[in-house]
Structure of TetR family transcriptional regulator:
Amino acid sequence: MRGSNKNNNKTAEGLRERKRRQTRERISQAAIALFIERGFDATTVDDIAAAADVSKRSFFDYFPTKEDVIFAWQDGFGESLAAAVAERPADEPLLSVIEEAFVAVVTKAVADPRTLAIGDLICETPALRARDQMKYAKLEQVLVDALAKRTKGKDGYLRARLLAMMVIGAMRIGKETWQDRQKSESVEAYARRIFKMIRAELSGFDDTAAKRS
């Protein structure tokens, strides 16, 4: 009997967590749809709660602010990137690991029209634009942690940090310039071109160092 009660508790706990996850996703989906339709500033928490069929208090149980809905959505990109890095072959060079993982994840992300719409929304909304810069630091740390599992020792970890910093910096610039170009090039082609530039710059640094020595 005791064993049966323990199993029932585990099952009940699993069901509660699933219900919370489903409610959070419902709120997020409703909020994103309203933000895209009406604009961020024109959408109220009351609007979101009504669309998600939850109370206003329930909204705040899951998201402290409207901004948190947007950035929780973006956190999914980092989680997908870490998973994609983990799936790459163990003997693949780190920069190739990052390139293939990044291209796969970003290509899948932009296939969802909401991703581009959210990007435009952030650019058009000062409150979101200011906080948006914080996501790059978080994404960089996610990438460092994912790469660190593929390296050994302090030197390996340092290399992971340097590569993550360089790639996320390039991604930040690439996102801005791709939007400025009115998205005239596919995101995959543009990402590949960014990584080609990174490789060229790394090679150029090596050449410069060799000339100085």
User: Anything to note?
Assistant: Residues 2-38 form the longest helix (37 residues). The chain is about 85% helix and 0% strand. The radius of gyration is 21 Å.
